Amino acid sequence: MEYSEKVKKHFLNPSNLGKIEAEGLGQGEELVTGEVGNPACGDLMKIYVRIKNNKIIGCKVETFGCAAAIACSSVTTELAIGKTIEEAKELTRERIVQELDGLPPLKLHCSNLAVDALKKALENYEKGINVIKK
Ligand code: FES
Question: Fewest beta carbons within 10 Å, which of 42, 48, 98, 111?
Fold first, then answer.
């Protein structure tokens, strides 16, 4: 399977892998998480979003997914950081795939995980689920 150079770069050197610990939150910051599974392959992803004044100031993922899913999670966190909640909600799977210069057709479903986890986290945030405040 042929991956683009960008996929390889993000897979070999992914940004923002890991978790955000609640203990590290500063005053006025909030942490929310979102978790999704991919029914197509059984892979999992958990995203941690750090928010201050309606802006995403940090974002990390723990992923049990394939190379494409890891590359997508790397790009998703990079694009999410610095955005307001509303702007981050606009992120789409297509945008992530575009940012990676495409994915092989068989791997397109892998782009769902990170964006869906981000959307889930933002949905949780609005509902007050899984939110830790400092
Ligand atoms: Fe499961 Fe890629 S094969 S996310």
Answer: 42
